[in-house]
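job 3f2a | input accepted
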Amino acid sequence: MPRGELVQTWADISRAGRLLNYEPTINLQTGIALFVDWFKMYKKKRRSEEHDASTTPAEELYRKLKEESEERERIYGIQRFLADVEEQIARQTVLKEKYRSWANGNDVPVPDMTGKHNFTFHPHMMMRQTAAFVFLPYLARDVKSLRQICAWYEECVAFSTDGHLFRSVKPKSEWKRQFNETDEGLYVSEVDVCVADLHNCNSRSTCVADPETKSFRCECKSEYHATAAGSCIPVYTADREKEEQERQDEMTDIFNGVNITQMKTAAKWLIYKDRFSAEGDYMMAPQLRGDVEGLKQACMDLKVCIGFTSDGFLKSALAPFDKWKVATPGTGPFYALDIDYCASENKFHFCDWQLVCVPDGTQGPLFSCLTKRSAKAALKHLEMNHGRIAHNSLTLEGIS
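job 3f2a | predicted structure (400 res):
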C-alpha cells in the first residue's frame, strides 16, 4: 500500500447532515460504478490530448490536407453522379411519355405511382441488400440526395440511409433490424405497391396493402395453403390427372426411365413419432388431416410425393435426418417411404451441392449428407456390414 493511504476510517457525516442538510442519494455500489466510468473516460481523454500534443505541425497539416482532399473527391463524385442521373432521367422521361401515350391509346394498364414522392421512414430497419438495384455508398446518410435520386428513378420505391435503392418492396415481416442509430433506416415510398405491381408476391398469392406501415403482405390464394415458412403450396384434390402426368413424364426423365410408381409401390412406410422433416412441403390435404390411410393413398397417387405429416402436409423431398425438427406433442407421426433418396439429382433430398447424399441402409435416418471423404468411409462400412450397398445408387468408385 502506498505511503499516506488510510488503512481504516470512521467517518461520521451526521454533523454535515444537521448543518448543511447533506443527505447522500447514491449508494456505495453505484458510486463505484460511476467512478469507474468517469475514470475510463478521463484516461481516454488524457491519451487523446497526449497524442495531439505529440503531433508535429507538419503531420497536422498533412492530416487536414488529406481530409480536405477526400471531402472534395466525395462532393465531386456526388455532383458527377447527379449530373449523369439527371441526363439519364431526362432520356427516360421522354421514353416513358411515349409509352404512356401508346398505352392509353391501346387500353394497356399503366402502374399507378400516386404517392411516389412521399416517403415513410422506418428507423433501424433494412431489406435484403441483394434486392437493391443501385448502391450509392458515397451518399450514405445524405437523405436529401437519396430521396431526390429515388424520386427521379421511376422504378425506385424505397431506399436505405446507407445508399441502397430498391425497385420493389418486401413484406415488412421479412425486414431486418440492421442500424443502431435512430436516424438510420429504411425510407419506403407511399405508392401502393400492390396497385403499381412493385411487390414480390408470386402467382400463388395476392398482394394486400397495409396502409398503416406503407408495406404489404402476400396472402395465399384460395386454392393454396400457407406454410410456416411463408410459402404457398397447392391444396390437394383428386382431379389432377393432367398435371400429374406432366410431373410423371418429368420424373421419368430424371430417373432415366425408372418407373416411379413401381419403386414407390415396392417400398414400405417408415413411421417417426417424435421427429419430422420441416422441408419439402409439396401439397396440403386439409380434408385428409388425421386420416393416415387417406394420406397414404393420396401420396401414392401423386408421383412426386414421398412422405407426409399426420396433419396433411405432403412431401416431395426430405432434409437429412440431423436437420429434422422435434415434433410438437399431439401432432401425430411422420410417414416416409423407404426408397432410395439418393438415386436422383437433388430431387428427393436437400443435400448441399458440395455434399454427397449417402443412403443409410437401416430403418433409422433414410440418408445422410456427407463430405466426399466421409461418404467413402460410410459406403465402405455399408459394404462390410451388409455385403452390398443398401440402395444401388452409389459406389465407392462413383465418388471422385
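job 3f2a | Residues 387-400 have pLDDT under 50 and may be disordered.
job 3f2a | closed
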